[in-house]
Prior knowledge:
Layout: H1 9-20, E1 24-25, E2 31-32, E3 34-38, H2 67-78, E4 84-88, H3 98-106, E5 113-118, H4 123-133, E6 137-141, H5 147-154, H6 159-170, E7 176-182, H7 192-201, E8 206-209, H8 228-239, E9 243-244, E10 255-258, E11 265-269, E12 282-285, E13 290-292, E14 301-302, H9 304-307, H10 314-326
Parallel strand pairs: 3-4, 3-12, 4-5, 5-6, 6-7, 7-8, 8-11
Antiparallel strand pairs: 1-2, 9-10, 10-11, 12-13, 13-14
Helix pairs in contact: 2-3, 2-10, 3-4, 4-6
Bound molecules: iron/sulfur cluster (SF4).
Residues 276-277, 280, 282, 294-296, 331-332 line the site of iron/sulfur cluster (SF4).
Amino acid sequence: MSQTEIPSAADTAQLTNQIAFAPLCDRFGRVHSALRISVTDRCNIRCQYCMPDHDLQFLAQHRLLSFAAIERFVKAVAKAGVTKIRITGGEPLMRPNLAELIERLADIREVEDLALTTNGMLLASQVSELVAAGLKRINISLDTLNEVTFEKIARRSGLQRVLEGIEAARAFPQLKLRLNALVLKHVNEDDIVPLAHFARQVSIPIRFIEFMPLDAERKWNGTQMLSGQEIRSLIEKEFGPLIKQESKDPSQPASDYQFADGRGLVGFIDSVTTPFCSSCNRIRLTAEGKIQNCLFGREEWNAAPLLQDDKASDAAIVDLVRTAVLRKHAAHGIAQPGFEPPQRAMYQIGG
Ligand code: SF4
């Protein structure tokens, strides 16, 4: 194009699009391609590392983003390279007709990965329709195999229903399953080795998660946390040295290992002792439509008005997300002096 030539309307539109939907890169060069969507703050258990046991004020139904609004948000950000979607809660399976949302999101051409994190309590009755709707991966929380310990952590009964949910999900070979176990010192420490044996028995990879300061009762002070290193030592004492696996996705939060005998994978999410913020690619959308640029973010951006405005453009939605990404801090800062937990507890963000 010569110096004096004016680009055609089509060229201009294309250029504008390229700019509007450029990858969501923050000030530290991290490109954001993963979105975690909380579809409800409600849950059917009360894990002490997440929710308060009582006096809960859940969001009124009318404040929850509709499936159409969530679909609209995903369609917009998918144009800017956000192609990995994880559905969370509270407990996402408590949101009625969730399979309809899964279907809507699975139909979005750019969406490469569609996953769900659940406590498994309602999985047995819903897994079939979720898979039929296009769900590819499910992470199931399982912190213990002991009913007494389960009730101590979850403050409700239900271990059997979780195990039935896992069994039901295993019937779908196309579904990628993973177990997530959060470890609390002196609570389910003795469950680490039995959980590893169970994971090998059912051939599902398991990840052990460090307790993070996201509990609603703000009791976290680091002494209840067992570090990933301590958990790894307990497992290696039982199974021998673990074999570190190359990570296929540099932004994934876990370090994965294979058991020495090759039977199964075990991973560790050491978010407190070995932060992985430098490769973070995640943004979050809360159940009522607030954009969060980090689990420990202190600001949020309300996308709900845009999503409810038929005249708003996809570019405007992405622009709001870009603003949030550009204001993202380098890391959670848990180890920094003066660290304060965020306003929202885990069940209000969705992990
Ligand atoms: S703490 Fe925040 S920046 Fe760090 S990995 Fe988690 S979401 Fe990303």
